[in-house]
Structures are given as C-alpha cells and as structure tokens.
Write a structure and sequence with these properties.
Porin, four-stranded antiparallel sheet, 54% strand, 19 strands
Length: 330
C-alpha cells in the first residue's frame, strides 16, 4: 500500500464520524407537515442514491467553469503558478433510471472545452471518459429508529475520451483506461428544534484503473511528439459530507466539504531520440468546500447554483469553480 493511500484513505472519515454523531444528539425527528414536504435538488458535490420507485427517470444537467487561482506545494505551501492558466468549461448530465424500487442505473457523460490565454485551445468540444454505474439501496431509512439510508454505487468508466496521438495537448480529456468505481453513501434527515429540516449525506469513493493505456506522441499524460509507451493513472478517491438546510419548502442552503486524494500516474516508454522514460508522478490531495443555494418549483423540478473552492492540499491547484444545475425527476 502506497504512502498516499495510507495517509489519506482514512483521515476524512475521522472527522465525519463526530459530525454525524453530533447531528444525531442535537436534533430530533418530527413528522410535521413542513418536514414531510421539504423539497431538495441535492448539493453540488455529494453523490445521491438510487431512485425510490421502479420506472422513475432523473435528468440533471450541470455546467461549470474552472479556473486556477494559485498552486499548492507538497506541504500546503504556496508555489509559483505557471502561466498561462489552464481554464475550462464543462457540461455533464446525470441520466438515472430506476430498474427496481432499490436498484438504479446511471451514466454521466461530460463535454468540455479547454484553453490557455495566449496559448492553445481544444480543437472543439471534447467528450471525456463515460462512466456507467449500478446504484443499490441496501438499507432504507427508518427515522423512528434513527436508521439512515445506505447505498452502494459501483461501475466502470469507459475510455471514450481522447488521450493519445493528439493534435493539441488541450484535447487530452481521457485516460485511455477502464476504471473501476465504487462509492458508499449515507443519507439521513433531521428536523431541527425550529421545525426546519436538515439533510446530512456522508460518502466515500474509490477509483482504480483496470488496464494500461497505449500511448503515442502527444498524450494526456504529458508526453510530446515521438513518444511510444504505456501509462496508467494512480488510484484516487474522495470522502466528504454535505448539509442541506431547508430555509422554506422551496429554498434550501447546501454546503459540501470533501477531501480528494490521488496516487501518482505511471509512465513508461521511450522517445524516438532514444530517451527512455520510467516515471511515477507525485501524488496529490486537496480540500474543497462548495456552498450553494437550491430553489425547487415542485418536488420534481429544481435548480442549484454555487461555487466549489479548492482551498488546501498538496501538489495541486487552488481552483475556483462556479457552477449550476437543473434537476428534473419523471
């Protein structure tokens, strides 16, 4: 087990547990009409679970802009940022269908456009790797007994994004590998003493490449013309929590706090000049916070807008990412 995996796979859960326990001790369940009728879209970052009734369909398009505001060194220190800055606009859509009352299938294709001022841009809109997941609710909430909803999400991401023999480096939006994905989520809802509802989500995700990518010339792994070889992303994951507080039935304040970690990527091959490459890049990690405001017209239709800020970590960028989404449940 690598140093990065050992250091960061468990730390987020250490602070999530006290938070969950404190939420239970300071809140009480209520069956008031207000609590029962609270409407949500879901927060910006937290993964949700399967749909509750067979045949239901969820459509949720997102749009976000990403721009780095600085660089974070190996000890959470500020380091000079390369110029020009890498920027991007991305749109991804959640498509989810309920196969049964407890099992759903989901895919989230993403399209992006990337650029650097005064440098290159993408040659057009680019589709990234496409994940397909099965979502299973294996424990249903029982508020009277303080039992939360627990979900398991597992699937594979398919290498549909451009990653090798690129005309432009900005076109590299894929990994070239099949990636196993697993997520555990918890969701529970509490009624506060002022009769406003508070929803808590906890989650932990894990990703691991199942194969290596064949690389040629300019690639998403940072190689240039004349390279031949293989590459593989390191393991990576995330853990976090979200809180959604019902201001009114339609208006909800949401906030996510999450910790991301990633092992370094493996790159092995050679250039036409004879230079051999056998590298393992450094691992990285970051903390992000994402406050947002939700508005729901009905229980089935709503919007959310907010900003995700990557504010701490190591070997990564400080990123500000405003975003919004529309939620429709059929």
């Amino acid at each position: 087990m690598s140093t990065i995996f050992r250091n960061f796979s468990y730390k987020p859960l250490r602070f999530l547990l006290p938070l969950a326990l404190s939420a239970i001790t300071v809140t009480t369940y209520s069956h008031s009409a207000y609590a029962a009728d609270q409407w949500y879209t879901g927060s910006l970052v937290s993964p949700s679970g399967p749909l509750s009734k067979q045949g239901m369909f969820l459509l949720e398009p997102y749009m976000y802009y990403s721009v780095p505001s600085g660089m974070i060194g190996p000890h959470n220190n500020n380091v000079p940022m390369s110029s020009p800055r890498q920027q991007s606009v991305t749109s991804f859509t959640i498509y989810r269908y309920a196969l049964t009352d407890y099992l759903s299938i989901q895919t989230t294709p993403a399209i992006s456009y990337r650029w650097k001022h005064g440098d290159t841009t993408s040659s057009g809109l680019k589709i990234g790797d496409v994940p397909v997941d099965l979502m299973w609710r294996y424990l249903t909430a029982d508020p009277k007994r303080f039992i939360p909803t627990l979900n398991l999400i597992t699937g594979v991401s398919f290498p549909t994004g451009d990653y090798s023999h690129l005309g432009r480096a900005q076109d590299g939006v894929g990994s070239g590998v099949y990636t196993y994905r697993a997520t555990l989520t918890e969701q529970s809802t509490y009624t506060m003493p002022n009769n406003h509802e508070l929803r808590l989500r906890l989650w932990a995700t894990f990703r691991r490449a199942l194969n290596s990518a064949h690389l040629r010339d300019v690639t998403s792994y940072g190689t240039t013309r004349g390279f031949r070889g293989h590459g593989q992303p390191g393991m990576y994951g995330e853990a976090g929590f979200s809180l959604e507080y019902g201001i009114t039935q339609r208006w909800v304040f949401a906030i996510d706090v999450a910790r991301d970690w990633a092992n370094g990527s493996r790159l092995k091959g050679h250039y036409a000049s004879g230079l051999k490459v056998d590298e393992l890049s450094t691992g990285s990690g970051d903390w992000q916070v994402a406050p947002a405001l939700e508005y729901n017209w009905t229980p089935n239709y709503g919007v959310i807008a907010g900003v995700s800020v990557y504010y701490a970590g190591h070997n990564t960028s400080r990123v500000v990412s405003p975003q919004f989404a529309f939620n429709a449940l059929y």
